Every structure is written in structure tokens, then in C-alpha cells.
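Everyone, study these two lines:
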Amino acid sequence: MLSFFGREAVQKVTAPLGRALVGTGLTPDAVTLIGTAGSITAAVTLFPSGHLFWGTIAIWLFVMFDMLDGAMARARGGGTKYGAVLDATCDRVADGAIFAGLAWWGVYHEGSKSLLIATLICLVTSQVISYAKARAEASGLSADGGLIERPDRLVIVLIGTGLTGIAGYWGVDWLEWAVYVAMWLLAAASIVTVFQRVLAVRRSPGARDVISTQRPASDGTENAATDGTENATTDGTENAPS
């Protein structure tokens, strides 16, 4: 994954695959949509039905496939702003489906309130972490870094679900707790990351500047300080951890 092995190492693997996919006529946007659709389908069907191991394998494969959209964009000479927004949006939807599917399993298969709470914390903070970075960069500020980024989230949750799924097949009782440990670890690290990103924004040059609320004389309308929207933070040439 990007944050564990480094972006350059990952690109050495994905670059030839990206060039090969370009030759098939697929577009980076199509790869993004296919990878996202596959991840969502696996998350909302296999996880809720208790097939954690096979759900983990399927999601992992589609996540790896989805990573190739950046390699394809580079092979074509660059991506588009629409592709960057599409990729970021699909990542948020896929993350939501993964945590929602796991929450469903925790409630209806395990009857575990603690797992539900941990999963909901991860669901909310994963969206906040990504949005904080996008909104900061839209305002010309910085919210880089933090303890947990998207690749880390996926690694932790998939290791937890995969090990618990293996426990179900092999009868290794102590492995059944892997998903609980993983989700609470991720929940704690994600909360820390939210605070880290807010602090990073606060320390950015210009973050404490006062935003003018005066009405311009020309049209009598207010200057909008914020628009509540999220600007793309990448150029479509690679998947940015968020």
C-alpha cells in the first residue's frame, strides 16, 4: 500500500499494468467505476452474510484494480480534473460501504455493540479526514500528514476481517477477535488523525487571516467565505492518500 511501502515502489508495479490496460481501450474513469462497484458489491453482500474471508479477498482485489486508474492516467500523459473528483468521490463511497457492511455483520451476526461503535467511529472519521484535507486545500491551506490515511485504513480493516474470517474456517478461536482489535485500533488512530489535520490547518500560513464579510459595491452581494463544497485535491494522475 502507498503509505507503507512508498508511492514510488507502488508505481513501479502499477506502471506496466497501467500501460497494458490503456492498450485494451479502457479509460481511467472506467477502471475507477469498475473497482468501486466491485468493492461496494463485495462489502454489502459478503460482509453482512458473514463471509468475512471471501469478502476481504474480493475487496482487496477490486481495491488493487482501482489503484490502476492513476497508472493509466500517467501512461496517457495525464489525468483530468473530472477524473480526480470522480476518484475521490468513489473512494468515499467505497469506504462507506465497507464500514457499513462490517457494521451490519457486527450487529446481526455478532450482536456486538462495541464493534458497531468502533465501526461507526471509523466510518465518520474516515470521511472527516478526507474532507478536512480537501476543504483546506480548497482554501489554499495545508492538511497533509496524520497518523492514518486511506491506504492504512484499508490495510487495517482488511487484515482484521481477513483473520477473523480465517478463524471461522479453521476454528482458531483467538483469531476471532482480530476484527475487534483492528477496528478499535483504527478508531483510535483515526480520531488522532482528525485532530492532527485540524491542527495542521490551524498552523498553515494564512489560516488565521480574517475573511472579509463586506458587501462589494458593484452587485450588492456578499462575498462567500465558504461554499461547503469539496474541491479535488489531486490532478487525476495518481490516487492521493486521504
In short: The chain is about 65% helix and 0% strand.
